[in-house]
Amino acid sequence: MKILLANPRGFCAGVNMAIECLDEAIRRVGLGIYVYHEIVHNKYVVDRFTKQGVKFVDSLEEVPTGSILLFSAHGVSPEIRALAKTRNLQTVDATCPLVTKVHLEAIRYANAGYNIVLIGHEGHDEVIGTMGEAPESITLVETPEEVANLPFTQTDKLAFLTQTTLSVAEASEVIVALRNRYPQIDSPKKEDICYATTNRQEAVQMLVESADVLICLGSQNSSNSRRLMEIGASQGVPSYLIDGAAELQSEWFEQDSTVVITAGASAPEVVVEECIDYLKQHFNAVVSEETLREENVHFNLPKELHQLGVLKS
């Protein structure tokens, strides 16, 4: 068996920042830390922090007044920020700066009188947060077919934004439909889809042509991980989205298989290594790391950590 190990894979800069932020908070504050939603969409990561005493909540009513609360990498709406303030919560914002960029674009367009079409998946934490910035100005679409049902005309001020973790191809189809129907539609100068999402998709696209099987490490609720799995499936390659080696099934593989392994932007490298070890033990797999490009992006930890006494001055 040959393993083609996709690079880039795994943690992006935003995920690294959010996880480092929570690690630092635990190191200095200890117990009593809450996180609104999952810090990132990955079961392994969330389970690790849960074992350390972190409490993940879906409602601020679950957080005692005056507690420490982290906002996840996916961002939150102004409504949640305001509610946290009324409950006297000490908040730390671990939102990915690339998600914050989309929030600021939504505010800018809404203030300028635009109707905003947000391309994304209904119910995703990032989408909920972005729509919360200007709920009366934003309409969500997921597919090109939905564009035909939009109520706007070619004289309306329109702009579109995208969820950062979408498939490039998926978003492009909707954008084409929007531009065809609304030639006047505006968009940010720099696209919203995250550099890491694009890089991981391009790496898989490059390798999957040689694959018999695609294994993508990531949780089922991870949008960017699911997009990676769907790239392989769209090419007719058996593709599996799993949290770790415990979910691997030997019938997926043959001794002479070529297996592409990648990991979504919220999946830690340890789960990749465990899958590689499994395939080495059961199929004598040989690993070839295939690098599309190097990533050197780094985001600083949020300033609010200084107020917690988390970081040394």
Automatic annotation (TrEMBL):
One of its GO terms (molecular function) is 4 iron, 4 sulfur cluster binding. Its cofactor is [4Fe-4S] cluster. The active site is at 126 (proton donor). It comes from the Bacteria. Dimethylallyl diphosphate binds at residues 41, 74, 124, 222-224, 266. The keyword Oxidoreductase applies. The keyword Iron-sulfur applies. Transmembrane segments: none annotated. Keywords: 4Fe-4S, Iron, Iron-sulfur, Isoprene biosynthesis, Metal-binding, Oxidoreductase. GO terms for biological process: dimethylallyl diphosphate biosynthetic process; isopentenyl diphosphate biosynthetic process, methylerythritol 4-phosphate pathway; terpenoid biosynthetic process. Isopentenyl diphosphate binds at residues 41, 74, 124, 222-224, 266. Belongs to the IspH family. This is 4-hydroxy-3-methylbut-2-enyl diphosphate reductase.
